[in-house]
Amino acid sequence: MRKQNERMKLGIKDLSYSFSLEIIDFVNSLPQDRILLPVGEQILRSSTSVGSNIVEAQASKSEKEFIKYTEIAVKSSHKSEYWLSLVSDTYKSLDKNASDLVKEVKDIRAMLEASLMRARA
Fold first, then answer.
1. Which CATH number fits domain 2-120: 1.20.1440.60, 2.40.160.100, 3.40.50.2300, 3.40.1650.10?
2. Spatial distance between the Cα atoms of 84 and 19, rounded to a whole number of angstroms
3. How far is 13 from 28, CA to CA, in rounded Å?
4. String of DSSP letters for 18-63
5. What global pTM score does this model have?
6. Quick one: pLDDT at residue 10?
C-alpha cells in the first residue's frame, strides 16, 4: 500500500522511469535459459519504450506530435503487459514479480489514456 501511495505522487515521466528501472532488475534476474532470453529482451524493449515515448511526447512541439508519441507509449504498454503475462503464466516462480509489474504498466497506461482523452478533447 505504501508503495502504491508513493507511486501516485510521481508524475507520469518519473513513474515510467521507475518502472523501467524495475524492469531492468526483473529482466536481469531472469534465469538464463533458451526460452527466457528472447522473452526478456522483448520485455526490456517494450517496457523501456513506454518511458522513452513519454519523454518524446512531453518534448513535442505540437499537440499532434504529443498524441502520436503518447499513442506509441500506450501500444508499448500493451506489449509489455503481454510479455510479462506470458512469463507470469509460464514460470510460476516468477509470477509475483511479473504480476506486480503488469499492475504497474496498467496504471501507467491508464494515466496515458487519460492524457490522450484530454489532448483530443
1. 1.20.1440.60
2. 13
3. 23
4. HHHHHHHHHHHHS---TTHHHHHHHHHHHHHHHHHHHHHHHT-SSH
5. 0.89
6. 67
**Mean pLDDT split into 10-residue runs, the chain, 121 residues:** 48 95 96 92 97 95 96 98 95 90 96 94 87
Indicate the helix (H) or strand (E) that contains 116: helix 95-120
Length of the chain counted residue by residue = 121
Contact of 69 with 53, CB cutoff 8 Å: yes
**For the chain, first and last CA: distance in Å?**
33
Question: What's the pLDDT score for residue 9?
Answer: 54
Residue 108 in grid coordinates: 501507467
Q: What is the pLDDT of residues 51-84, one digit of tens each?
A: 999 999 999 999 999 999 999 999 999 999 999 9
Classified as helix, coil or strand, 121 is: coil
Q: Give the cell for residue 112.
A: 496515458
